[in-house]
Amino acid sequence: AAKQQGRNRFNYFAPFMQEATRVRMTLVNELREAVNHDELRILFQPIIDLASGKICKAEALVRWQHPVRGLLNPAEFISIAESSGMIVGIGDWVFKQAAREVQKLQALGLPDFQISVNKSAWQFRDNGSNYEQWLDFLQELHLDANSIIIEVTENLLLDTANSVSERMLALQHAHMQISLDDFGTGYCSVAFLRRFDIDYIKIDPTFVSNLSNGTDGVVLCEAIIAMAHKLDIKVIAEGIETPQQLAALTAAGCDLGQGYLFSKPISAEELEKQIKNQLPPVNNSLDIHRTTC
Length: 293
Ligand code: C2E
Ligand code: MG
Ligand code: MG
Ligand code: MG
Known about the structure:
Elements: H1 2-36, E1 40-49, E2 54-66, E3 70-72, H2 78-83, H3 87-107, E4 114-118, H4 131-140, E5 148-153, H5 154-157, H6 162-173, E6 177-183, H7 190-195, E7 200-203, H8 205-208, H9 216-230, E8 234-238, H10 243-251, E9 256-258, H11 268-278
Parallel strand pairs: 2-4, 4-5, 5-6, 6-7, 7-8, 8-9
Antiparallel strand pairs: 1-2, 1-9, 2-3
Bound molecules: ligand C2E and magnesium ion (3 copies).
One magnesium ion (MG) binds next to strand 6.
């Protein structure tokens, strides 16, 4: 009877399963074509030093310029990229683009400018990226390893695969900086912040959006910032959309901010334009006017 039931269940779900598999296979093939035909793009979202109001970093965010469906956000293809293994190649490409861009921006007279790239746990597992190639690439471009910040989520730090923590620690040993993305939404303990010697915490937008007066939002942000500073970690608030949120974060001692209030993710050309606009006028040599952050 059980066998009979099982077979019935299988028959019942089969058409639906086949359809899901078909859609997935189509997406995988399309994404593979996209990579081969240079349909991936990178946008950069400025990160602002809240004390000076200037752009001192940017986050690289991948997009897919789909021939029919237009510009697609990562939500529409990153999980397919991960489960198909394509994330490794895509992630390496994003890394190289980010490195080339940070080289350009540092040469504009901002030697401390950094670009962050997002990495998922897949990229640190055994069949993942060869992180030594990232370091070699930075060296080829004559960039310090800390020109690039690696953004990871709390669950990556909790990943039980040995390769994940080994690779993270190796990158840090090479002086690449680590930023903990979406902080507060996972299960990361303070012990992990210490173990991985995290450089930045990015406060998740869900906390920032609760920053209107009279809610827990302010208390939570203040607590995260105080804890981070005790551990010598800088704080980036993500998803800042209103002047009120910015004021509350500044009052709480937040170091850096990112969000639509300052800028949406923009093209490399637009980012370069904005950065040139905030540089002091070039009277003499750029060296005298080097701006740091
Ligand atoms: P994330 O790393 O947390 O990136 C921040 C997301 O918030 C971005 O979405 C950004 O466009 C959006 N955002 C920024 N400011 C605001 C704001 O003020 N309001 C609102 N509502 N949203 C804001 P995006 O570009 O769609 O990226 C989504 C996620 O995709 C990223 O979240 C990241 O986890 C992932 N991702 C992006 N690029 C890559 C990549 O190259 N590799 C990997 N593995 N993941 C990536
Ligand atoms: Mg991120
Ligand atoms: Mg985030
Ligand atoms: Mg460090």
